[in-house]
């Protein structure tokens, strides 16, 4: 069976954007692939984290991913990235196969440098090399992500090709798996920006732990144009188009079906329906995640078991890499 890999940063509680763009497909792919998934806590420290909040948040994100329906019977694994040391070790090796110019061209680095202008640390710059290590360590063929991560997966391929060119076919070349719909869910208050879990304004995003009332309130307050027609037009009606995407994915309908369903209805009715559909999609995950969060001893036990499995899965590739390069064997 082929392997897929993906990860999420614990920089906030995962949002509806994370769910529709990525997590949903982690679940789907985990049925066909051996699914290896991680809470990217090492990536998260490129911005400062309060230790207490950070520890609680990693557990909450782990709980949400556990609750999302990953196919553990088919061998899926979920672990905190920092617990498997091979990720950081491979990162150093791969940094010697990654060019300064390549990293400078990463749009996420440019965006994040603008946002964190008081802390442009080198981790922010070398971030994609850690991502490449995450993916290549497990021989992942598919990487389910939203469209913002496409450039990083492409760089991962370039690094793998460069390494293989010198040492033979060590790494599997990964492909990004990006959904046709939902690859970039937009902020509810500013539909020109993507929805982000670390957004300071909670009205801009729906958290996967928001309750029904909060979800409906946020959908009702979503910024839309002054027209009254529920019609998909990303340029002229970005707010309504975003809500249509959200509704269609949560209700399992096409955009055309959604347009037909709400033809002649006002924005208020549509927004309430969006909120209800989102709640129906998220409620089972939220309830299950809250149970895990309420039982931290059980959660830690699962985390430890899964981490042990991931450590075993990661070891052979690191060994193969070091061997191919001529490091003295241990
Ligand atoms: P992160 O934590 O920003 O996001 C997790 C996943 O959610 C997707 N995503 C979105 N999809 C649709 N609409 C949105 N508004 C939206 N916001 C986020 C992201 O594309 C991502 O798939 N660097 C990664 C984490 C990572 C990783 C990896 C991913 C670390 N190592 C290896 C894949 C493979 C990140 O910050 O994702």
3D architecture notes:
This protein is an alpha/beta fold. Helices cover 55% and strands 7% of the residues. The protein contains 13 helices and five strands. Strands 3-2-1-4-5 form a five-stranded parallel beta sheet, sandwiched between helices. Helix 4 (86-95) packs across helix 7 (122-137), helix 4 (86-95) runs parallel beside helix 13 and helix 7 (122-137) packs across helix 8 (150-167). The model has no long low-confidence stretch (mean pLDDT 97). The structure holds tryptophanyl-5'AMP. Tryptophanyl-5'AMP binds at residues 5-9, 17-18, 20-22, 40, 43, 131, 134-135, 143, 145-146, 148-149, 183-185, 194-195.
Name the strands of the widest sheet in spatial order: 3-2-1-4-5
- Going by helix content, strand content and strand pairing, the class is alpha/beta
Number of strands: 5
Distance between the termini: 29 Å
Number of continuous helical runs: 13
Rg over C-alpha atoms, rounded to the nearest angstrom: 20 Å
Estimate the global geometry from the Cα principal axes.
Answer: globular
Oligomer: single chain
Q: What is the makeup of the main sheet?
A: 5 strands, parallel
Order of helices and strands: EHEHHEHHHHEHEHHHHH
Q: What does the secondary structure layout of this molecule look like, with pairings?
A:
Layout: E1 3-8, H1 16-29, E2 34-39, H2 41-44, H3 51-67, E3 77-80, H4 86-95, H5 100-104, H6 107-115, H7 122-137, E4 140-144, H8 150-167, E5 175-177, H9 212-220, H10 238-251, H11 255-261, H12 267-293, H13 296-325
Parallel strand pairs: 1-2, 1-4, 2-3, 4-5
Helix pairs in contact: 3-12, 4-7, 4-13, 7-8, 9-12, 10-11, 10-12
């Amino acid at each position: 069976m082929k392997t897929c890999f993906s990860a999420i940063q614990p920089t906030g509680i995962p949002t509806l954007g994370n769910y529709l763009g990525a997590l949903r497909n982690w679940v789907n792919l985990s049925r066909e692939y051996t699914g290896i998934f991680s809470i990217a806590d090492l990536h998260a420290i490129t911005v400062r984290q309060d230790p207490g909040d950070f520890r609680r948040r990693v557990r909450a994100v782990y709980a949400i991913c556990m609750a999302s329906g990953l196919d553990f019977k088919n061998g899926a694994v979920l672990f905190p990235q920092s617990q498997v040391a091979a990720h950081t070790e491979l990162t150093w090796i791969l940094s010697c196969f990654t060019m300064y110019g390549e990293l400078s061209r990463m749009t996420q680095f440019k965006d994040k440098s603008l946002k964190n202008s008081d802390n442009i640390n080198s981790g922010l710059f070398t971030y994609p090399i850690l991502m490449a290590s995450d993916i290549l360590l497990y021989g992942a063929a598919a990487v389910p992500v939203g469209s913002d991560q496409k450039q990083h997966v492409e760089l991962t391929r370039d690094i793998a090709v460069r390494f293989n060119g010198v040492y033979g076919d060590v790494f599997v070349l990964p492909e990004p798996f990006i959904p046709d719909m939902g690859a970039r869910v937009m902020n509810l208050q500013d539909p020109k920006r993507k929805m982000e879990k670390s957004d300071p304004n909670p009205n801009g995003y729906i958290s996967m732990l928001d309750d029904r009332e909060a979800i409906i309130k946020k959908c009702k307050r979503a910024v839309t144009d002054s027209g009254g027609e529920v019609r998909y037009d990303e340029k002229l009606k970005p707010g309504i188009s975003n809500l249509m995407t959200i509704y269609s994915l949560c209700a399992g309908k096409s955009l055309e079906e959604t347009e037909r369903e709400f033809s002649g209805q006002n924005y208020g009715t549509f927004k309430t329906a969006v909120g209800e559909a989102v709640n129906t999609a998220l409620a089972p995950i939220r309830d299950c995640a809250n149970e895990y969060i309420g039982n931290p001893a059980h959660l830690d036990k699962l985390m430890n078991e899964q981490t042990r499995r991931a450590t075993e899965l990661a070891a052979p590739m690191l060994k193969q890499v070091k061997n191919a390069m001529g490091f003295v064997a241990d």
